Amino acid sequence: MPTSVPVESYASFLNTRAARRKPSPIRALQAVLATAPAGLISLGGGMPNPALFPFSGISVTLRDGTVLSLSEESVRAALQYSPTPGIPELVSRLERVQRGEHSPPGAAGDRMAVMVGTGSQDLLAKAFDTFLDEETPVVIEAPTYSGTLAALEPIGCPLITIPSSTDGTGIDVGAVEELAAAFESGERAGPRPRLIYVIPTAGNPTGATMPLENRRRLYAAARRLGSLIIEDDPYRFLDFGEVVDPADADADAAAAAARSSTPVARTPSLLSMDEDGRVLRFDSFSKLLSAGLRIGTVTGPKELVDALGLHAQASCLHTSGVSQALVLELFRHWGVGDKTPPAEDGSARCMGDMEAHIAEVASFYRSQRDACIEAINKHLRDPGLAELYAVPSGGMFAWIKVPGLADTTALVKERAAAAGVLFVPGSAFVPGGGSAHSAFVRASFSVASHEQLDEAFRRFASAIRDSGSD
Fold first, then answer.
1. Locate the Aminotransferase class I/classII large domain: which residues (predicted)?
2. Do 345 and 335 meet the contact criterion of CB atoms below 8 Å apart?
3. Residues 205, 211, 212, 214, CA torsion sign
4. What is the DSSP letter of 54?
């Protein structure tokens, strides 16, 4: 890996709109109020009188029957305006979690900051709107998350598409290295990519997880290009800690190996190797706690996180206080972020009892994955009707190719729907909007029962056969 070259200034990464944003003097008062002594009399910000709010208490019941009731003070904080980065105690706990989970080295660790957002999707959209314009390229994998395309394509920025690797390990890092070499040699002219966007764990839609060595190579390529890395990692805690070869001649043996695998330590993140301060990491609690709470985080250099904070000050002000307060109360109950890493027992992580919940969630989705792969092998792969890009090593998606079709949209919307099964056509994950084509479909195995998964792929097999008879 090249010698560390810390990013000294982030001004060149901001677009014109972001460079014009200034801190809100009224929003700045929220930080003062959050730490003010009890006797402070505020005649500052236009905060509504909490005595008129119709709510007097908030409590939730956990699945084990435990009732969590917010204190009067917590209820007041939840219902009132709060600092843009998040409720201070929640942010502090999240900072300890991120340091324990990722431990960014050197100067990047010293400059690390965390902000709470209304889901990672909202934070990603703010990031793209902060860094990109019509002249600034961004590197993305093709296929990639449709929500990312929905945020990028209206900006009009040039999309440098890198294909997924042929070995089922996500973005083709070799192609990114070739891109860097082309800019270095002068073979490729024009602006270098300002951002590299990647989903390193259980990619959506492919289900692929980048091996550690590929992550190291991608970081090195970002250094050569002078790019920031947008590490979108909502499925990190749905990592099964295993890799299964989809080309295994013995499909039953591959499925059995997947079922018997014991999860290992989560693959080190790109943030964990960020010596320069060029990684902006996005996490989500939607898959782990609740999608409806809309709680996500962005972690990275303070200057970049603050730039997203200025965007939030002019839009949503802050994420729902009620959602934040519920997550904070759960974290207190579970002991998440109680300790400053490394803990007294020598462990780096400070997840508390949430680690057991993470294991339960990952185990459930691993079982769902196994049932999905078994059904795909039985109804699609063995009869030669479809191919699996990779056995997912995490997450909740399988990426399936239907050979002989240039595009699966009609198959999904007409034949499959008529047969009583629904997928997402692969074109939804390819840049190009209505003109995009793909021979793939994405299947989600998160909600359907094992019996329903088997029946779904039986119906899909029937739809493929019917389409071939036309």
1. 76-459
2. no
3. negative
4. S
Q: Which two tokens stand for residue 175?
A: 């192609």
Cα-based angle 403, 380, 396 (whole degrees, multiple of 5)? 95
CA distances from 325 to 53, 95, 332, 335 (A): 17, 16, 10, 15
| Cα dist from 198 to 18, 19, 116, 325, 400, whole Å | 23, 25, 20, 30, 20
φ, ψ (nearest 5 deg) of residue 130 = -90, -35
Q: How confident is the model at residue 29 (pLDDT cuts 50, 70, 90)?
A: confident
Contact 348, 370 (CB under 8 A): no
The single-letter DSSP state of residue 4 is P
Per-residue confidence at 259, pLDDT binned at 50, 70, 90?
very low
User: What does the alpha-carbon distance between residue 389 and residue 376 come to, in Å, rounded to a whole number?
Assistant: 12
3-state secondary structure of 164: strand
Total Cβ atoms within 10 A of residue 9? 7
* Number of C-beta neighbours around residue 398 at 10 A: 27
Instruction: Enumerate domains of the chain plus CATH numbers.
Output: 11-356 (3.40.640.10), 362-468 (3.90.1150.10)
Tokens describing residue 415: 């034949």
**Residue 65 CB neighbours (<10 A):** 6
Single-letter amino acid, residue 365: Y
From CA 340, how far away is CA 94, in angstroms rounded? 11
Q: Which two tokens stand for residue 278?
A: 């060029």
Rounded CA gap, 413 and 91, in Å? 44
The answer, yes or no, to whether residue 126 has pLDDT greater than 70, is: yes
Interatomic CA distance for residues 377 and 373, integer angstroms: 6
Cα angle at 258 between 255 and 260, to 5 degrees? 110
Strand residue runs (E) in 233-317: 279-284, 296-301
Residue 115 main-chain phi, psi, to 5 deg: -130, 140
What single string gives the DSSP state of each residue in 189-257?
A: -SPPPSEEEE--SS-TTT-----HHHHHHHHHHHHHHT-EEEEE-TTGGGB-S----TT-S-HHHHHHH
Q: Is 466 exposed, middle or buried (0-12, 13-18, 19+ CB in 10 A)?
A: middle
CA 293, 294, 297, 303 dihedral sign is negative
Q: Is the separation of the CB atoms in 256 and 355 below 8 Å?
A: no
